[in-house]
Amino acid sequence: MGCFDEFCIICSGPFSSDYNGNTETNWLKNVVVMKNDKSDAIIGTYDSYGRVVSLDKTKTIKISNSNVIPPYIGMKSSDSYAVHTACWNICNKPCNLNILERNMDLKGYWSQVFGFRKLEKDKQYWKIINPESDSVDGKKNLARIMDYFNSFCLYAFDQKGI
Fold first, then answer.
1. How many domains does the chain have?
2. DSSP letter assigned to residue 15
3. Does the pTM of the predicted model rise above 0.90?
4. Domain boundaries, position 34
5. Which of 115, 117, 129, 143 is the most interior residue, by most CB within 10 Å?
6. Is residue 6 part of a domain?
7. In a domain, 56, yes or no
8. Exposure letters 24-56 (e unless 16+ CB within 10 A, then b)
């Protein structure tokens, strides 16, 4: 079994963060898993094999194929989907998302392993800088993500247990 990427439905970025040991992308592996049935979200770390391990290491949730395109066709109410913890935080920690149109901004870089080098070559690397950071690129990415979120997401904020 090889490793493969899954992608955040809010920012379109990968959940893996291994790119030349660059600490600017470590935030990408921090993930929140939500369920369509609005049960408690799980905060954890992506393992590069389609699973998120909860921070307390008591739960492992499979998310592979949860972020399909188009999203949610055929999903049951108990199915889960994942977003970056930073994306979840900047969007006020919604407990449920109804995506009107999936963010496809980085689709050209999606593959079994995200195209970090191509992104850098295309001078689009700022799109994977932590949107919670105070850097110029972080603020630029925050604006990109919020523009998408406010245009295409319906959400609820009644999350319990977080």
1. 1
2. S
3. no
4. 23-156
5. 129
6. no
7. yes
8. bbebbbbbbbbbbeebebbbbbbbbebbbbeee
